[in-house]
Amino acid sequence: MAAKGTSKVEEESESAVQTARRQLERAAAQVDVDPGTIERLSHPDKVHQVSIPLRRDDGSLEVFTGYRAQHDSVRGPFKGGLRYHPDVSAEECIGLSMWMTWKCAVMDIPFGGGKGGIVVDPKTLSEDEKERLTRRFAEELRDMIGPLHDIPAPDMGTDPQTMAWFMDAYSMQEGETTPGVVTGKPPVIGGSHGREESPGRSVGIIAREAIDYYDWNPEETTVAVQGFGSVGANAARYLDDLGAKVVAVSDVEGAIYDPDGLDTKDVEGHDEKPGMVSGYDAPKTLGNAELLELDVDILIPAAVGNVLTTDNANQIQAEMIVEGANGPTTSAADAIFEERGIPVIPDILANAGGVTVSYFEWLQDINRRAWSLERVNDELETEMLKAWNAVRAEVDERNVTWRDAAYIVALSRVAKAHEARGLWP
């Protein structure tokens, strides 16, 4: 079963940018926004493509392709991750940059959306090769980024060390240390405490609020998490501490299941020790696809995009879905969940803790004053609750889905900014 106007073939080939545009069109139908503004927001401001030569450890030369999509900067500098993955493309970066625009607007952060990456499997790179590739990528992007223009961050296949190399390369070329050019750095060079845990922590906070909204008892709530990496593991541990029963988690190799609840602190995440999840001594092992279809209260897809599709949407037994990954649900699957009455808390709200603490890091960098972990977590809690309450108000007032409500909040804020600034002749 596909969404109205979407064939199965279309769904299978739906790119991130197509999904993002469908979601924008749907939200636009419910908000009084100038059609010209919607047309502008359907396209990125710029998309940069660069060639990145790399001298491999064996002396050979290989050239990789890198991208940086900059969607909209009406509310502030472009902001978004850099990923190293074989499937990186211009289309993917455009779609993800659009989601970053909405995510920043939902959180009311003064940033716009950006996204980029290199078409490479990071597993094929040595540590030295990854450093050389990153430093050259920073040089290729140098004229397109900056602490007041475009601020990259870690994403799939990149980490705080990658950001440290990137920041150092940029700083050396600029002739001065510029920590604010990226976020997600190690705290010793201007990174923020709590940044790595923040996307998963925000998923946990939003899941907690949703549990309360639907008047569930946390201690009677069961949870399955697909993707026990930095997002999934931190979300699972947050909910475990809340008293919820996390019954299943997975990594790329498979899933483990315990109906009595797993000790999420004993299960090491895939980022911490690859293979630990699927190799953990649990009562039952499952495939990743089986985990998605478990009979649980909350399903958290926290791995990759497009895992909830028309192939499995009717088999999903969860009472609620909280999106930890970016774009885990296709438009067609979303329509099925709406028909079935399964609430889907969207990624642009749930995992927005990452960009929120990135904003905190940027503030710390430009003010040259570090915050404690306690302050970061307190500020994150405050901002997540403000965003939740704004989205919840639209759900209650308009009787729309959570995704539509989040887009209405975001689009209204971005559109007002465009209206206030006008159009350059």
TrEMBL record:
Keywords, comma-separated and alphabetical: Oxidoreductase
The protein's name in its UniProt record: Glutamate dehydrogenase
Transmembrane segments: none
Xref: Gene3D superfamilies: Leucine Dehydrogenase, chain A, domain 1 (3.40.50.10860), NAD(P)-binding Rossmann-like Domain (3.40.50.720)
Region (Disordered): 1-31, 260-280
Upper lineage: Archaea, Methanobacteriati, Methanobacteriota, Stenosarchaea group, Halobacteria
One of the record's GO molecular function terms: glutamate dehydrogenase (NAD+) activity
Homology family: Belongs to the Glu/Leu/Phe/Val dehydrogenases family.
Important for catalysis, annotated site positions: D155
Location of the Glutamate/phenylalanine/leucine/valine/L-tryptophan dehydrogenase C-terminal domain: 192-422
Keyword Isomerase attributed: no
Catalytic center residues: K115
Gene Ontology process terms (BP): L-glutamate catabolic process
Organism domain of life: Archaea
